[in-house]
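Q: Could you fold this chain for me?
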Amino acid sequence: MDIQHDAELKARILVEALPFIQKYYGQTVVVKYGGNAMINEELKDAVIHDLVLLNLVGIKVVVVHGGGPEINEMLAKVGKEARFVNGLRYTDRETMDIVQMVLCGKVNKDLVTLLQKAGGRGIGLGGMDGGLFQARRMTDRAGTDYGYVGDIVDVDPAPVIDMLAQGYIPVVSTVARGIDDETNYNINADTAASKLAVALGAKKLILLTDVRGLMLDPKDDSTLLTNLKVSEVPKLMRDGVIKGGMIPKVDCCVEAVRKGVDQANIQDGRVKHSILIELLSRAGVGTMFQ
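A: Sure. Below is the predicted structure, expressed as structure tokens.
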């Protein structure tokens, strides 16, 4: 391909992105960042550059991150075994200290540094900063003990709104201040991203995960459901299409849409630049709920 033709192709791609940039300009997009995209260096670089580009074209980007592998690594260093109950990390006092240290410290600040290196303006926020997330200890009907795992009961988006107004990319860790005890709580990152998207009146919620999206047959990529109305979800639940670890992710998307977010996506973070493909192209990626 000659230089002239290559330049024309790049220009055409930029022009095709224009209506999508106009659609999202000045709007808020919340991205839950986790899974493979967070530990694979090539994918991590792609995500970081996607976020910076969106910010520079006038889209208000908020990142909500987990950090499971890093937490497991630190637990192993101190000789403590990771334990899970019903898919959630059992969080005793010592584990809670490590969760807070890893999420609010290392992972959060590493992401801020990467954004800075890519020419962005990242700023880290813990979920307890400014009363952003407030939570109670999680309980279920069976009375299961999850330790210091919390359910968010209130979101005050003011710290995030203030940072967005100054042109920053807020990077939010999922630890919440307890209102029923003198403690902080470990919070599910998908849930935190969904509730924050609602509180911010976001245009879009994106949950990056390690699967293509919601599929009729998990073993057959061609059965990907690209668009779903939230009213279709209960039947898919009854039919067993939505099951296992996909249930809480779908619940987060449904809740966000029902409470005012225009669209919510479950999409494959293993696809390079999947955020840009979803937001700035006709192709899209993953499963979109609206």
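A (continued): The chain has a mean pLDDT of 93.
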